[in-house]
């Protein structure tokens, strides 16, 4: 065998096709203007690139003032929920080729929460609702000397709602939340569900009491926006209905 | 790597910060939610029963005149039926519009005014309707006999 490896030119076979894509980003900078405006950026992207990669290209190469949140960049931390082509998604889990790159792709901050700058919103009202439902294990009596056992069947009851990453995609997709932001929102209810249906937890009735509020589960109109928006595939509306049912069986 | 700075369109200004104003716990919304389901089922029976008796039985729609209505309301069963239909439909509908106002009105003042109008409309219709059902005179004096129910002349 003769050594001809050096001579072989890099094959284009494995190359990923690249294309140009336009991102129409809603910019807002309160130090410059009280008005938010749309701004177009055109970047070169690969077929494997996500919205987040395009945003990085803009921020690193074109306009360093573009502001957005991201942390792990792999769909786990829940930092980069944004409204992409009118739907709430994680920028790090949405491939450009899946949102029709032939037309400008609109990128907006998630709705219903106060915008701080560009794509960054103030998450505080969202986390305030989350804290209200007491998202921690509540027990009574002495500290056990061994683990708190749970059967696989009991675990399965709330398995779906343990997946939440608190990205606010569901809450900020809810039309009831958009009205005045007083509604607890799907995310808070999902995280209450995670403890209400946990056999080891003893704070269930307290949590039901908290969500039996005028702004609690009864404001849900089952529009399923939250279920569609959830990047983790949690059946959010179903979880809310299960909490409603628990309240009704408790009351009657 | 072209860079377009053209502002495409103006968008509404971002929201001002807010917090949940107060806790409003209680079973009110729970009972209202259950009532909507229960009254809905009962109304299905009442309304389709009403439509069947008025439009399908006997001569059907051609039988409806003053005498027909007078005949029905001289029967306590139909008085209760119509009263129940009036009250359930009005409470069910009013409660439904109330939730719509809650969902769509963004300002407290708008919400208050709309709910006030709703309550006024509710009160007028329910009071008037109830009054008619109970004070209805099936045989008014000096009315032409052919318009009245058969039991008036007897």
From TrEMBL, chain A:
This is Fumarate reductase iron-sulfur subunit. Residues 154-176 form the 4Fe-4S ferredoxin-type domain. Signal peptide: none annotated. It comes from the Bacteria. It holds the Pfam family Fer4_8. Keywords: 2Fe-2S, 3Fe-4S, 4Fe-4S, Iron, Iron-sulfur, Metal-binding, Oxidoreductase, Tricarboxylic acid cycle. Residues 19-113 form the 2Fe-2S ferredoxin-type domain. Pathway: Carbohydrate metabolism; tricarboxylic acid cycle. The keyword Glycoprotein does not apply. The keyword Glycoprotein does not apply. One of its GO terms (molecular function) is succinate dehydrogenase (quinone) activity. InterPro entries: 2Fe-2S_ferredoxin-like_sf, 2Fe-2S_ferredoxin-type, 4Fe4S_Fe-S-bd, 4Fe4S_Fe_S_CS, Beta-grasp_dom_sf, Helical_ferredxn, SDH/FRD_Iron-Sulfur, Succ_DH/fum_Rdtase_Fe-S. Binds 1 [4Fe-4S] cluster.
